[in-house]
Amino acid sequence: MKTPVLDFKDCGTCPIRHRAVCARCEPDELSQLDAFKYYRSYEAGQPIIWSGDRMDFVASVVTGVASLSQGMEDGRTQMVGLLLPSDFMGRPGRELAPYDVTAVSNLTLCCFRRKPFEKMMADTPHVGQRLLEMTLDELDAAREWMVVLGRKNAREKIASMLAIIARREASLNLVPTANEFELPLTREAMADYLGLTLETVSRQMSALKRDGIIQLAGKRRIIVPDFDRLQSETGDDMDGGMVA
Amino acid sequence: MKTPVLDFKDCGTCPIRHRAVCARCEPDELSQLDAFKYYRSYEAGQPIIWSGDRMDFVASVVTGVASLSQGMEDGRTQMVGLLLPSDFMGRPGRELAPYDVTAVSNLTLCCFRRKPFEKMMADTPHVGQRLLEMTLDELDAAREWMVVLGRKNAREKIASMLAIIARREASLNLVPTANEFELPLTREAMADYLGLTLETVSRQMSALKRDGIIQLAGKRRIIVPDFDRLQSETGDDMDGGMVA
DNA sequence: CGATGCATTGAAACTTTTCAACATGGGTGG
DNA sequence: CCACCCATGTTGAAAAGTTTCAATGCATCG
Prior knowledge:
Two copies of one chain form a homodimer. By secondary structure, the first copy, chain A, is an alpha+beta fold.
């Protein structure tokens, strides 16, 4: 498999230009960023960072999906974040990575050397402001996920995950809901995301298929004939559910 | 019961002065804040905000404990945040509250009217910078909690909660670990925090007591004879566990 | 074509929940 | 002042849901 070599010399053609941490940068600020940015690509499954590693960069996900996960020493693993295009990785001011970061699918990052990025944040308030907005959104997402982990049963967990991925997929493509999409996770990754075993994930996927909530085309492509029906399996409030 | 009337005219005597969102404000900025701040107190158990309410203020917790929780319409509830002194409540730019907020213990808030606070954030970058730091810390805490919810068993969950509360208690009092502290939560609140039923919480508390990991003085006061022993019940790595 | 990695399915074991009864302990009103 | 009451907490036993262990299926890759 050949890793595609990216060559976005120009932020103007960047697919995440309007949603990433640089969303509100002016042309001169983009060229400032350009001075200390570089792209890196990873193949599906490759590790990007191990917990405890020194991290000299922060980055935006340009294409693909990455996971943040935390391991317990006896081997149990919990995914604590799923980074989709435009999401931000790393923390300004932090030397050591607190989580394992893995490329879930083929992935391209737009990396910024950490020190100059921190300097830019100090000098250019709206970069920090944008990062604050994004961090608050991530905190909301993390809290929504806490409800899934703490209070939903296995079927509701699976349905919730599918609904969330479908919605995010749709929002990237600027359509209301995606009724067909590629599931970027293995069964094991889903299990780590949902706090289940991979067998339970497999069983519940089969059950949702058997009940006609979803169809599978191959192992990874999901078809949702009726999004409301999927939504009603999540256990969430039908309408008011989403945060304002 | 009489609600104590607070009268911190002066930020100089404020117990959270050095940790809250205003930590890095200069005297002139504090007097700016003073123009649109006010204190409110609540008794243990009182609701502060219901999900969906209009929220015209943001606030710092001065004393006491508040909870953020999300309900599912069938009655299941998951606590998604526990706000201790110096923690920030509300989101600049957001009109409607996404969670129920409840005073867990007697509570005093230092409230700022939202609009002027937003203006101040725009004009005074370091307020936003401080809020970004605090939000990133909260995100870390939320992710740590996701591991607890997703991968730990009931005993580990209880031990984790006790260890975390003991540590936060200690850090407020500037001592390394608190080996005796007041547990501010009812069994039901603990259950909502941990994604368990209150019966399971009760059983595991009894088990930890039976095994000598903790002692109970009354219903709420917890004594931890050996903090390492408690820590070893959490399932976490002994030392490297804490994020850098 | 056999090996390897991922996924599915079954049955037994285990953990947590559910339902129900009982305990405790402060407060209130007789 | 005491009895009773209500909220909170504890404990037991059966039921339910999830995990564990084990076998099998299916596709891809060398």
